[in-house]
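As described in the Methods, two query proteins were run sequentially through the folding procedure within a single session, without resetting any intermediate state between them. The first query and its resulting structure tokens are shown here.
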Amino acid sequence: MLIATINPNPTRLAVCLEKEFDGAYGPAWHCITGKSFGSFVTHPNDGFVYFSVDNIRFLLFKMEVRPLIKPKPPRLLKLTINE
């Protein structure tokens, strides 16, 4: 259904695929589309898909999601001045 148009927009296809994969398999999917490209990505064992339809190539990969932990500010020291 996505490839049904005569001149599909690779950027739109990538965004749609990312949203679908995020919904189906959890967050942090990224998609690269085009006729010819190279890549080097880091992904978990179950987070890589590469396929082609006609002359458009698709690369979907998942990034590891880690919670962002903000460091606590350092405690202020009490200064005493002796006169």
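Immediately afterward, the second query was submitted; its sequence and tokens are:
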Amino acid sequence: MGFSDIVNVNILGKPSSCRIPPVKVRFKSSTVARKVLKNQSKLKGSQCFVSESLTHPRQEALNAARDVVGMRNAWSVQGCIFVQSGDQVVRIKELPEVVLLSCLQEARVLANRQESD
């Protein structure tokens, strides 16, 4: 992988002295993009991160899922959103499914409280 695999680079937003603006990179092939996403964990501890570009409805669903189950338990792979709830991993397709997941999560919490009382 090298510079020849990059088709386009766009700076999103205006540069400022307090923060570095996000950059959107478009690759020649989805294979290269997947390699980059697969190796994103190597950036831990740095101020850089990599994420895929999602459609607005899917980004809303991902954000809502992260609000329900936490940042580490909701992610996207090739435009599909996955949520880990307990020991199960569930694929989320639309925002209403996140609402349902939230209700199930709340029901589990209430059940656990009743068992401990």
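The chain has a mean pLDDT of 82. We note this only descriptively and draw no conclusion about the first query from it.
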